[in-house]
Amino acid sequence: MKNTLHIYLEYEIKQNSQPQYNQIMNNIVATLPQYDAFNIQWEKSESDPNRYIERFIVPTESHFHVLKRLRTSRRHLLFGLLDECICGGLKEINLVGLKTQL
């Protein structure tokens, strides 16, 4: 059996950042496959219009650790752009990885 990791990110964006956030996220969704991410989903929370949830799968724990570090880095040229859009910045992203077997 092959292990994969399901990655879940949840965060709240600033109300006035919606257009900028959407543009950045479209670029992020297009870029994630370069990090071997697949089954990428990005959606608004049903309970809060400013809260977003991202889900995707990566093939190994190493991929998870790399993406966790990059997604929370203000220095990354793409992922770091979200720092200005998220309430409290990138450090407020709730990021969880769940290991599964295929």
SSE arrangement:
Blueprint: E1 3-12, H1 18-31, E2 38-44, E3 51-58, H2 61-71, E4 94-101
Antiparallel strand pairs: 1-3, 1-4, 2-3
Note down, in words, how this protein is organized:
The protein is an alpha+beta fold and 102 residues long. The chain has a single domain, classed as 2-Layer Sandwich (Alpha-Beta Plaits). 25% of the residues lie in helices and 32% in strands. It is built from 2 helices and 4 strands; from the N terminus they run βαββαβ. It has helices spanning 18-31, 61-71; strands at residues 3-12, 38-44, 51-58, 94-101. A 4-stranded antiparallel beta sheet has the order 2-3-1-4. A hairpin with a 6-residue loop joins strand 2 and strand 3 (51-58). The longest helix is centred in the N-terminal third of the chain and has 14 residues, at 18-31. The chain is globular, with a radius of gyration of 13 Å. The mean pLDDT is 95.
